Q: What sequence folds into this?
């Protein structure tokens, strides 16, 4: 028994053409999907490159604390008090300038020979004007710092080399400020230096 379609003229050839058409359509769909996936990968790659560039850190306009300080490179004239801190220069952030500041000097008193009770580890100066964006602490101010430090070293029986750390703080720093207050009001980084103390007052 034969199927009805076998008696319809041209049905066999039509079926073959239909199958070819379907395969051709499937091939076009596959090509379209592959091209679309390729475009997505390309776009994704561009996006990742953009993300990497966005992660590059932006350099701050003014790095670090509001003020940068440094010691003068030329040799300082010895102070008759017996100890000499080199002149200190400063440069301030134009967007965070102060009118006045306080010099803080930390020192290592481990070499003290007179330990009659609690010992201080820092000297806090009175405030001084720093109205210019950049400059140096006044010579008379540094002279007063030398004399104050010499009195402390003399009282503690300190001799020879002493390690110091200096920084400038806000003028609101109290004379008997704790280490925590000094850190909270600090305007610059700490600058280390080693000085020599020669007590001019023997005995």
A:
């Amino acid at each position: 028994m034969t199927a009805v379609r076998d008696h319809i003229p041209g049905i066999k050839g039509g079926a073959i053409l239909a199958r070819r058409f379907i395969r051709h359509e499937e091939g076009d769909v596959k090509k379209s999907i592959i091209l679309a996936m390729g475009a997505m990968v390309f776009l994704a790659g561009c996006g990742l490159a953009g993300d990497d560039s966005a992660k590059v850190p932006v350099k701050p306009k003014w790095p670090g604390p509001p003020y940068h300080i440094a010691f003068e490179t030329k040799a300082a004239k010895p102070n008759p008090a017996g100890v000499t801190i080199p002149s200190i220069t400063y440069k301030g952030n134009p967007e965070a300038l102060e009118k006045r500041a306080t010099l803080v000097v930390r020192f290592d008193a481990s070499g003290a020979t007179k330990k009659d009770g609690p010992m201080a580890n820092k000297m806090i100066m009175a405030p001084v004007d720093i109205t210019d964006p950049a400059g140096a602490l006044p010579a008379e101010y540094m002279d007063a710092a030398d004399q104050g430090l010499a009195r402390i070293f003399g009282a503690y029986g300190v001799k020879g080399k002493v390690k110091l750390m200096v920084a400038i703080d806000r003028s609101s720093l109290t004379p008997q400020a704790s280490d925590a207050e000094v850190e909270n009001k600090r305007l610059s980084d700490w600058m280390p230096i080693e000085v020599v103390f020669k007590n001019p007052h023997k005995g």
User: Anything to note?
Assistant: The chain is about 35% helix and 25% strand. The helical segments are 11-54, 139-156, 179-184. Residues 67-197 form one domain.
